[in-house]
């Protein structure tokens, strides 16, 4: 397995970090976890095409995890790619219909691209055939205990505390060839994620708050610090730990160094803070 970071930031507009998006290559499949703002551009910068994506899994439906969803689906369709298999909590089905349905917000665009003679000629010149169907991602709404069997890999989920009851929020694990990858989504402290992470070769975990950083009491359990995440990963027997979801102020020289030190104090194994477009073999 190979992990490529397409977005390691937050909703904050930030040149250094796009919002959440993580590409996992497993055999012949190219899996995307979340698709926040800026992820589409970084997908192109990574040397891949929208139509390369075979599966898309959403951890939850905050905008910074799905802002580029419509752009990805539309661009993959315009390349003539196979429909992307999309998985996520409700209401991802109605959201998709709202984008690409007969009365969706892109209906004017899609009618033009599929019915206008000039557009049809452009499509045929690119190797397409008529009639040209509209984008039709294969959407599956999942619960928090979803399991999926890929061609050469298996996926499991668990519920994680973050934005309930407004949003259903989950973490993911992928197993392939005796290796295990876990993505936390935006996870508060919980036993379910620790259990899902057990023995992971790589745990990618969000980080919203630094050690010693003031926070409202309601936020403390929902925003584990680098040290707390490191301690959890150590208990779970994780082999490698990477932090993501860094906010602008967290990248300041003193704060960034302090976060690294806190992470290493909590976790004795290989660990670090990711940057956009970095890749890791698992």
SSE map:
Blueprint: E1 2-7, E2 21-26, E3 29-33, H1 39-45, E4 55-57, H2 69-78, E5 85-88, H3 92-100, H4 107-115, H5 117-125, E6 138-141, E7 147-149, E8 154-159, E9 170-176, E10 179-183, H6 191-196, E11 202-206, H7 226-235, E12 241-244, H8 253-266, E13 271-273, E14 279-281
Parallel strand pairs: 3-4, 4-5, 5-6, 10-11, 11-12, 12-13
Antiparallel strand pairs: 1-2, 1-14, 2-3, 7-8, 8-9, 9-10
Helix pairs in contact: 4-5, 7-8
Please sum up the structure shown.
By secondary structure, the chain is α/β, with parallel strands linked by helices.
Structure, explained:
With 282 residues, this protein is of the alpha/beta class. The chain has helices at 39-45, 69-78, 92-100, 107-115, 117-125, 191-196, 226-235, 253-266, and strands spanning 2-7, 21-26, 29-33, 55-57, 85-88, 138-141, 147-149, 154-159, 170-176, 179-183, 202-206, 241-244, 271-273, 279-281. The strands form 2 sheets. A 7-stranded mixed beta sheet has the order 6-5-4-3-2-1-14. A 7-stranded mixed beta sheet has the order 7-8-9-10-11-12-13. A hairpin with a 2-residue loop joins strand 2 (21-26) and strand 3. The chain starts with a strand and ends with a strand.
Search tags:
Metallo-beta-lactamase, Chain A, 7-stranded mixed sheet
């Amino acid at each position: 397995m190979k992990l490529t970071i397409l977005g390691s930031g937050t909703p904050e507009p930030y040149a250094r970090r796009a919002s959440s998006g993580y590409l996992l290559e497993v055999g012949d499949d190219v899996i995307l976890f979340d698709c926040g703002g800026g992820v589409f551009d970084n997908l192109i910068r990574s040397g891949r095409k929208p139509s390369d994506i075979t599966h898309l899994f959403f951890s939850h439906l905050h905008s910074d995890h799905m802002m580029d969803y419509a752009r990805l689906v539309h661009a993959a369709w315009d390349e003539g790619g196979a429909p992307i298999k999309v998985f996520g909590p409700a209401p991802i089905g109605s959201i998709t219909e709202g984008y690409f349905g007969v009365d969706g917000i892109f209906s004017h665009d899609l009618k033009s691209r599929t019915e206008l003679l000039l557009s049809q000629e452009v499509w045929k010149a690119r190797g397409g055939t008529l009639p040209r169907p509209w984008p039709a991602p294969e959407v599956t709404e999942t619960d928090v205990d979803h399991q999926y069997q890929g061609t050469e890999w298996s996926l499991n989920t668990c519920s994680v505390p973050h934005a309930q009851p407004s949003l259903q929020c989950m973490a993911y694990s992928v197993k392939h060839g005796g290796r295990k990858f876990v993505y936390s989504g935006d996870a508060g402290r919980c036993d379910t994620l620790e259990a899902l992470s057990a023995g992971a070769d790589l745990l990618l975990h969000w980080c919203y708050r630094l050690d010693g950083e003031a926070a409202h009491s309601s936020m403390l359990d929902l925003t584990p610090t680098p040290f707390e995440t490191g301690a959890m990963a150590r208990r779970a027997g994780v082999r490698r730990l990477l932090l993501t979801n860094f906010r602008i102020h967290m990248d300041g020289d003193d704060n960034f160094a302090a976060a690294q030190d806190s992470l290493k104090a909590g976790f004795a194994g290989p660990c670090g803070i990711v940057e956009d477009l970095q890749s890791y073999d698992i």
